[in-house]
Specification:
Strand content: 15-25%
CATH class: Alpha Beta
Order of helices and strands: EHEHHEHE
Distance between the termini: 21 Å
Number of strands: 4
Radius of gyration: 17 Å
CATH architecture: 3-Layer(aba) Sandwich
Helix content: 25-40%
Number of domains: 1
Number of helices: 4
C-alpha cells in the first residue's frame, strides 16, 4: 500500500533533475512487484497532475500541483502505463475529490473551459486511487 508517496519519488541521485524520467516511480513499482506474492494486490493513492484545480492554482501564481514538495504528479493514464509496464494488471482505478471537498465552492467555471475546448471533464479529480494485482501465474499477461 502506498498512500500519497509516489509523487515524492525522485530519480536516482546521479541523474540530472531536468532529465526526469520517472525511474524513481518505476523502481518502486518493480520492487513492489518483486515483494508481492503471486496474485498479491497493490493499492496506491497519489495527487493527479490533471486535477481541475491545477489551472486555478497556476492562474493565481501558485505551482500547478497540489503541494510544493512534490517531485511529479501523474495523470491517471501515465500512472496506469507505469503500473502495467511493471507487470501488474489494473483491477480498479478512479479519480476522487478527497483534498478539495469544500462543497460551498462553485467549481462549475473550472469545468466549463475543458468541456468547451472538447477536453472533457472526466478524470479531473484531485487524487488517483489505483488497485493492481500481480498475475497469479507467470503466463498471465497484465492488461
Amino acid at each position: 500500500m502506498s498512500t500519497e508517496v509516489l509523487e515524492h519519488l525522485k530519480d536516482l541521485p546521479d541523474r540530472y533533475q531536468e532529465l526526469f524520467t520517472g525511474s524513481g516511480l518505476d523502481a518502486a513499482l518493480r520492487e513492489a512487484y518483486c515483494v508481492l506474492r503471486s496474485g498479491g494486490l497493490s493499492f496506491a493513492t497519489t495527487p493527479t497532475g490533471a486535477s481541475i484545480y491545477n489551472p486555478q492554482l497556476a492562474v493565481s501564481g501558485r505551482p500547478a500541483w497540489s503541494c510544493g514538495p512534490h517531485v511529479r504528479e501523474y495523470t491517471l493514464a501515465e500512472l496506469s502505463t507505469h503500473v502495467r509496464d511493471a507487470g501488474f494488471a489494473i483491477i480498479s482505478s478512479r479519480m476522487v475529490h478527497c483534498m478539495t471537498v469544500d462543497h460551498r465552492i462553485d467549481c462549475s467555471t473550472l469545468y466549463s473551459f475543458p468541456i468547451e475546448q472538447d477536453y472533457g471533464a472526466t478524470d479531473r479529480g484531485d487524487d488517483i486511487f489505483l488497485t493492481a494485482r500481480k498475475p497469479r501465474r507467470p503466463q498471465e499477461v497484465a492488461v
